[in-house]
Amino acid sequence: MSPRSPREISVLVPPDLAPLYPDDPSRIGPYLVLGRLGQGATGTVYAAVDVSSSTASDRLVAVKVLRSPELESPDAYPALEKRLRALSNVNSKRVVVPLAFDTDANPPWLSMPYLAGERLSHYVTKRGGLGTGKLIALATGLAEGLSVLHARGVAHGSLRPSEVLLESHGPHIMDCAVAASPDRMRGLGATWLSPERFRGGAATPASDVFAWGAIVAFAGTGRLPFGPGEPEEIAERAANGAFDLSGLSKGLLPVVGRALAPDADGRPSLREVIGAVIAVWQSEHDDEGAPAGGAPTGRDELTRILEREWHAVEPPARVPEVIRLEGRMSNRRPTRALLVAGSAAIALALVGAGVWGVSQLLGPSDEEALVADASEEEPEAASPSADDAPRTLVARFDPADQEDLAEGPWVYTPVDRDDEPIRGQGLPSHSAWAEQWDEAGEPAEATIAPDAEVLCAKFCAAPDHVFLDEEGRGTWELTGNDFVDYLSWGPVVIVEVTFADEEPGEGPREIVQITELYTD
Ligand SMILES: Nc1ncnc2c1ncn2[C@@H]1O[C@H](COP(=O)(O)OP(=O)(O)OP(=O)(O)O)[C@@H](O)[C@H]1O
To answer: Structural domain of residue 31, as residue ranges?
Structure first.
């Protein structure tokens, strides 16, 4: 097997990744930018590739280019740098922390792990308040994340339901880099703003506790705790302690009520908050299954609560994308391959169906027929005639077998497999995938029709290549030319090929249809 081309890597990307705008950067720091994740009041977030990462599933990062009103004065930059340094040392799975940042860049940026999930604001708006177990997990998780932030001297300052991401492993506190100014927060919704912040005060741990109380109240009841209205009306109710917690899980009422105290001194510390919420959970679970060996720590309990209560937050599917790292050998293919909405399930379904279909197709008698008739005159690569080989077979194209990577005919080796592909273990590399297939015949040569129909799941190209068949299965549609171009990059590929229906003859057979086989 030849090694995979060092010029390409695969990355699992969200299926609905938006394309870049013409002015968007193609690189940010060490990252290759793939598409836009979104734009908020503090900057634009891009999906980007960390080329140093060794696994497809970890390569995707989110890079935020900061452009926020709070950073308009040059004095803001040293403070930003200090805050990002502190954040980089935060050790909590509940906080999205920077992987890298550059505050000298213009504009500054920070990278963070890519997290697939749903904002708490969307989740509650769509489904209503959370059940008690999940609410307790959320409340404990947020309080733990905030307490670790505070221990590093960082008050979040802008916490609200849209800054809480629900992901399959638990809730995450996002957007910690820049605390919104009170002015900006007033515009974003006074509900989450403590009275002292509404009056223009700085972000403090106590103001984060207030935000925690308001978020937990919203998540538990599906309603705004101070009701609807203009920011001033809401702020007035907050200043008077006029909240409505009816419908909130009974055990949580006292601690949430105290967190919403108008006076910062009247609010509990996060340690008290965590203790109170854990006590509610333990009282409802009789402490069953508590770990042996003394009183569990807050973190142990949080882990246990998340394990028990955090269900039904599934990560959205991601789809494979092949990224070219440097100049291309041909200009037919776009530098990067971007997949569009809806293709994830269908692409994976097609691949699964393709693998299944091929295993059905290749019964034992077919396998025997796959053994190519290597003639004495052509020892390197035989060209089986149309009457002694099936019209469709699974083949390996290994550029190591090919003398000239730009010109055909193309050497292919029939392959098959006895076992089912192992799924759910991440996307295998080209060569690892190819190694799962056994040789089932002698190498032979074929030409590839320039307009051959190509269905691919992994080496897909531009969005306008998307293809849906009559049964709703789909993937990307390329041509034989694109496939030849792909082969010239050097990867080993496993494909199902169909030859032209031709009269028996001497020359290499012509491939008119190619379906890439891949799985994860
Ligand atoms: N680490 C991440 N992983 C995946 N997507 C992310 C990540 N960080 C941000 N995003 C996405 O990027 C988009 C913009 O996020 P951002 O936090 O900048 O904006 P916002 O929260 O909408 O507004 P604001 O800047 O006012 O907080 C959102 O759709 C968000 O889900």
So the answer is: 1-116+319-363
